[in-house]
Structures are given as structure tokens and as C-alpha cells.
Amino acid sequence: MVKDNIKVGNLEIKSRVVMPPMCTSKVNNGEVNENLVNYYRERAHNRFVGMIITEHSYISLDGLASTNQVSISKDEDIEGLSKITQAIHEEGKLVFAQINHAGNKTNVVDRPLDVNTMSKEDINHIKELFIQAAIRAKKSGYDGVEVHSAHGYLLNQFYSPLINKRDDEYSASTIENRVRLHKEILEGIRKELGDYPLSLRLGGCDYQEGGSTIDDGVKASELLAPYLDMINISGGINNYTTHVLQQPGWFSDVSHLVKEKVNIPVMMTGGVKTINDVERLLENKDADLIGVGRQLLVNPKWEE
């Protein structure tokens, strides 16, 4: 099953293994360098990898999650990003860009953006930043773009009742309100880029009392699926690990149920170490695409 083709929007991926976005801290001032290009080229060469989603890139300086993060915040970034996409394409693989705003989860911004004090003008500005970043991704040669709403970053902060204490239409009072900004961003990208392949990484469950639940993750996925070509399930405020499931496929408790409810491909990452892990998760219908992260991070020749 690993080598079975799958359609994501208008793309055909030739393996169900995806290298998910992982921060490398290989750049300075957000600028792509040869070291980063070679890193992606080596991993795209792996025969099991069908697609790479590159590390989360910041859409504006006030959304910088950490130093040495890649920028997609200005048109001048396109030249460097194009070198990454060219290297991956030369290996015959597909590549998505992941675009992100850290919100108040940043250790480098003096006055972080706070979900609960953002004005409507602030929200509209954020929407435009995501849309412009998606446009840059396409201009840089990416085959698609993924909006990041997981691991406690800005959009995940709107989604999580642990963080979101607003009292307007973006409040945590209903699941529709919690994903309203997601929907508006996705609609805005669609309006500008048409059928350009579009994914969302959703931190479906917080795995904490009072936080988002597995049921929330399923409902949110159903609400957002009409605007997407793929949904990528991960952790919420708990970041990218969980102690709820110990076996490979940490977020399969959410992704399995999402897959039953949506008609687009579902991706899931979490603790996957071997091809046998990938096969088991696919056979169990836990997801359509399986992210292999840390293993590829440390070893581009994983399983070869």
C-alpha cells in the first residue's frame, strides 16, 4: 500500500509516505541557503518519500516562532524558496509549503499577537498575510500550500478553548466560531489561487481538560473539508506529541474518525518509525498519507 498512488487535488502522489514539516534552524534572517537546499534534496532522493511539506515558514515578522526560521513574508523570499522546490522536483517529488503565524507562541517577538485582544482590523490583516504567503508559495514553484493550525500557534489558539476567550463571532462558544478565521483564510486563498492544492494542518485535540476534543477535531474537519484538498491531523496545544497513544500513529484516534467523515485525503504524523508502521496505519484506515518525521530528519536514507 505504501507505493499506491493517491490524488491530492489535481496532483498525483506516487507514495503514501510524506516528510512532514520540521523546523531545521538552518537559516539566518529567514533566508534560504545552500545547506537547507541540500537537506531537502537528500530527503527527496529517498525512494519511499512521495511528497515533502517544508518546515513552517513565517508570514510576517510578528509571527516569527523562533530564530533561524524560514521566511515567506516578502516577495524577496521567492528566489530562495524556488531553490528548494527546484531541488525537490529534480528528485521527482512533490512539495508543499507550510505557512504559519506563531501568535503569542514566540520567543523572539517583544509584543506577541494575542488572540483575545486582536481587533477586527488585526484579524483582516492576518487573513491577508496568509493569502499573500500562499501566493508566494505558488510563485516559488511549490505544488501546493498548507496552512498551519496546530501545535499551539495562532490559528490553533483561535481553535482551542484553552486559549480563546473572545466574546465575538471568533469566540470559542461554538465550533463554527472557532474555525471561522480558518474558513475565511482558506476562502481567500481559493479566491486568489483557484484550484491550487490546499491543505490544513489541524491540531484536532488538545488532550487536556477543558481543551479541544477528538469530537471537535472531527467536526472542525467536516466544516473545513469543502475548502481543502487534504487535511493533516496533528496535536493541538499539546504540540506534536501525546502520551495518550503510545504506539506509532499518535494522532490516529482523531485521523481515523476524520477519514470516515470527509471525502478528501487525510494525513497523520506521530511516532512512525518503519515501513511496517506505515503499512499498518494504512491498512487500518487511520489515514491516507502517513508522515514520517524524526526518522527522516536524522537519516535521509531511512529504510533504504
Helices, by number, come to 10
CATH class: Alpha Beta
Please count the beta strands (DSSP E, at least 2 residues each).
Answer: 11
Fraction in helix: 25-40%
Helix/strand-derived category reads: alpha/beta
Through-space gap between termini: 17 Å
Rg over CA atoms, rounded to whole Å, is 18 Å
Overall tally of structural domains = 1
Look at the structure and give the mean pLDDT: 97
Spans with pLDDT under 50 lasting ≥5 residues?
none
How does CATH name the architecture? Alpha-Beta Barrel
What keyword list fits this structure?
single chain; 304 residues; alpha/beta; TIM Barrel; two-stranded antiparallel ribbon; 10 helices
Overall description:
With 304 residues, this protein is of the alpha/beta class. It has one domain (6-298): TIM Barrel (Alpha-Beta Barrel), CATH 3.20.20. It has helices at 34-44, 78-90, 120-139, 154-159, 175-178, 180-193, 214-224, 252-261, 275-283, 294-298, and strands at residues 6-8, 11-13, 17-19, 49-53, 57-58, 94-100, 144-149, 198-205, 230-235, 266-269, 289-291. An eight-stranded parallel β-barrel has the order 3-4-6-7-8-9-10-11, surrounded by seven helices. The protein has a two-stranded antiparallel sheet with strand order 1-2. Helix 8 links the parallel strand 9 and strand 10 (266-269). Helix 1 (34-44) runs parallel beside helix 2 (78-90) and helix 3 (120-139) packs across helix 6 (180-193). The radius of gyration is 18 Å and the shape is globular.
